[in-house]
Amino acid sequence: MAEEDSTLSRRTTHHDVGQEIELCIPPHLKFLIFNIKNLVPTQLTLENYSIWRLQLFQHVSTNGYRDHLTELAMCPPEADAIDHARWILIDRNLVSAIFSTISASILTYVLTLNTARDVWLTLERRLQPTNWSRVIQLKNKLHQIQMKDRTMQQYLHQIKKDNIAAAGSTVDTEDIILYILNGLPSTYNPFKTAIRTSLQPISFDDLYSLLCSEEINLHHQHNQEL
């Protein structure tokens, strides 16, 4: 508990008045620290950097500490004793919060770093190339996906899951729709032609509804032929 208290508060001396002042952690940062594992449930590994980064950055930004990651919040000079100590207190608690969301295998990359910005940049340099390679693989998988014997819901769910896994590198809606149409069997050819020749763009949600309806129509036609 003593170690926790020393992290959440710090004593500093105001030289002008010779008075020792205790700095306490701001309420928003305290909330972030105590809830970080619920707010960022994805523990960072080699495979999920983009999702982890998105979750962490969102909550750090929402609570007002984005600048500590983007380097806009510069550490005040030591001559400004109180502001300097306050900045150090905030930044070191941010570092502790970030560390608690990182798996042991990744933690070794950043364990000796002192600022949140250094941790953020080091993880970006280390893991972004790995993430980019994974995104390429996922896009290639989307390009080759086929409906085969899946139901329409199973097929579209698989595409949605792969697209989410590629988060961090945007896949355009038009590309996703193209992947979906290319993977449909020949029985959907009239439907594919209608979508491709339409002058109006279509959203993924609208396409989802139309495809589910088309699946029902095709099953109905097939049963009538039997």
From TrEMBL:
Pfam families: Retrotran_gag_2
Domain of life of the native organism: Eukaryota
Name assigned to this protein: Retrovirus-related Pol polyprotein from transposon TNT 1-94
